[in-house]
Structures are given as structure tokens and as C-alpha cells.
Amino acid sequence: MNLREIIKGRRAVRDFKDKEIPKEKLMAILEAGIWAPSGSNIQPWEFILVTEKAMIEKIKLISPGLFGNPAVIIVLCINRERAKRGGKLGGITALMDISMAAQNMMLIAYSMGIGSCPIVSFSKSALKELVDIPEHVEPVLILSLGYPKFWPKPPKRRPLEEVVHVERYGRHFKG
Amino acid sequence: MKDTEDILKDDHFKLLAFLITSARGCVVEPPLYGPLRLVDAASRLIEIMRKEGRVNEQIIKLQKMIKERMDLVMYDEEMFIEFLDELSKELAKMLKSE
Q1: pLDDT at B98
Q2: Given CB atoms, is B14 within the 8 Å cutoff of chain A?
Q3: B74 pairs with which residues across the strands?
Q4: Optimal mutation site among B15, B21, B24, interface A, most CBs of chain A within 10 A
Q5: Which of A41, A86, A125, B64 is most buried (CB neighbours < 10 A)?
């Protein structure tokens, strides 16, 4: 698969096989995260890797948006102390950094046949309590990972002609 | 009293946890996620009823409809709302038949 195929092929997977993800693949996914772009190279992220089934079950209980039985969960967090270095924009930049790290992770996962789903519907306060996240660290995104039972069909995308403006806003791309 | 380990495996407790955390989520999530969480909870409740042998074919049909169509919320709002109407209508048919 080339990069374009990987980008276009990735889907939000919510139904997983009961199959473990090898450690080296997990390391590749996590490593892809730390190679994401980062505003002012602050790298405000902290990743919590959860592989214990009992803890995954507990996280599912406090995450209404988490479907299926993922083999692994990665909790992506912002370290607010680090993010402060970005000044007033630090908070929003940190969110962008986390998003780019998550995308890197999901794309490399897909390239290895592993499905993923980004989830924001979870209880932050409950998750912080469950996995001992300190006060200055904020969980902002959960990635569920596992081998998919099936790859969902692609959802509709807004066409380029609608989304792209050429040279000036309002001059729509004509193809 | 049950111990915590047993409670964590209890389907009623799982539904309870889902309801509490959904309530908090609904404060900040897209407005249609409220209905989504409610029908998801309904499906989970039917699952509990099914395990306890307290369902009939009509109730199973409601759960099937939910499982098949609740994802519409992410792709087509109008179709999702239409699905909620159909679900309510299906429930009414069941009430009417008694």
C-alpha cells in the first residue's frame, strides 16, 4: 500500500477480532506518535498504553463512545505543564499536536492491518481516577486498536469542489 | 453484599456505568448524541432482558433495529431521526397488539 491508499483506506473500526497485537507492532504505532509534528517542538503528549483486559473492560465502562472489544487502548494526553511553554496558544496547539500524533498512529496501524477508532466520548474524570493520571495531565483522546472483524465502508466525503477555495475564499475549485 | 469483582461483571452495573458517564458526556457532545446514548442504553437493556428470558420477538426486533441503524447519527442526521420515529412506531405496534 502506498501512502495515498493508506490515507484513503483507514476507517473507524468498532468491531474487533479476539486477537492480540504483537508487541513490535504496538511499538511501531507508539513510535509513529512521537514523530508527529509538534508546535515549537514542545511535544506536549503523554501516551498511556493499556493492554490488560481487565483494565480495558473498566475503561469501556466509563466510555460511552467505545464500541467492540479492542485488544489495546492508547490514551493520548496533554501534559499541561509542557503545553504552557506554547504561551496563550499552547492549549490549542497541544490539541493539534495530539491530533497529528493520533493520525500517525492510526495510519501506521492500518498499514499493518490493524483497525483503530478515535474516541472522545469518555469520562475524563473517571479515566483519570482509573489509570492514575496526575492533575496536570489531561486525557483528550482514546484510540481503540485491534484486528477488525470487517473494514467498514467509506463514509461520504465533502467534495473538493465544495471544500477547496482557490486563491480567494469563495472561488471554488473546479477540478 | 456482592464483592466489587462480581459487580464489575454484572450487566446491570455495566448499564449503570454507561448511563452515568453518558450523562456527563451529553453536556458537551453533539445534541444528537443524547438520543444516541438513549437508544444504545435501550439496546443494552434489551440484552439484559434477553439474558433473563424476558423478551419476545418484538423486543428483539427493536434491538436489531437499534444495532443496525444507530450509526446513522454519524452519517445522516435526517435518517437517524427517521429511524427514531420508526423505532417509536414499532414500540407502539407492540403496545397496540397487547
Answers
A1: 66
A2: yes
A3: none
A4: B21
A5: A86
The CATH number of the domain where A38 resides is what? 3.40.109.10
Q: Is B74 on the interface with A (CB under 8 A)?
A: yes
In a domain, A172, yes or no: no
Q: How many CA atoms lie within 13 A of A55 on its CB side?
A: 16
Report yes or no: A122 and A130 within 8 Å, Cβ to Cβ: no
How many CA atoms within 13 Å lie on the side-chain side of A63? 27
Cell of B3: 464483592
pLDDT at A113 (0 to 100) = 98
- Structural domain count of chain A: 1
Residue B78: domain span = 4-97
pLDDT at B4: 83
Contacts of A173 (CB under 8 A, 6+ apart): A160, A161, A163, A164, A165, A166
What's the domain range around A158? 3-163
B1 pLDDT band, cuts 50/70/90, is confident
Low-confidence ranges of chain A (pLDDT < 50): none
> Touching check for A175 and chain B: CB below 8 Å?
no
pLDDT in tens, B50-76: 999 999 999 999 999 999 999 999 889
Q: CA–CA separation, A105 vs A116, rounded Å?
A: 9
Query: Which residues 52-71 of chain A have a CB within 8 Å of chain B?
Result: 57-58, 61-65
